[in-house]
Amino acid sequence: MAAHLKKRVYEEFSKVVQVPHEEAPAKKLRLSKPSKSAALHVDLCKASSSTDALQYLLTFSRKPVEAESVEGVVRILLEHYYKETDNSVRLKIASLLGLLSKTPGFTPDCIVDDAINTLGSESKKHLDSFTLESNIWIHSH
């Protein structure tokens, strides 16, 4: 009897059942270009001098920027503006910010606070410097 049960169990578990294979739908791939903000950030970080940075900005200004990339580009430009000491580079960044704000489909509301904070801290820095220079001049005369 045990041999008969063993044989029956073995037969049940040794059967091969084929399940029809359902083909998974093919996944569609979408090719995308690297973002303009990432490319600009890399270029500006590679700049070893203000002349290099200015050259990268000039090259960048000749390329079109899609509306969905503008916010990232503006944030990178504001970040670099704050770090930059050369006035010609800062002027080019300010010019690019003005041009980018006019991009069709871009609403500058999302970056206005960042721009105000950057420019506010910038004007405070210059005001503090001016006040210090004025005090030195007054005390020396």
From TrEMBL:
GO biological process: snRNA processing
GO CC annotation terms, alphabetical: integrator complex
Lineage: superkingdom: Eukaryota
Protein name from the UniProt record: Integrator complex subunit 4
Organism expressing this protein natively: Acanthochromis polyacanthus (spiny chromis)
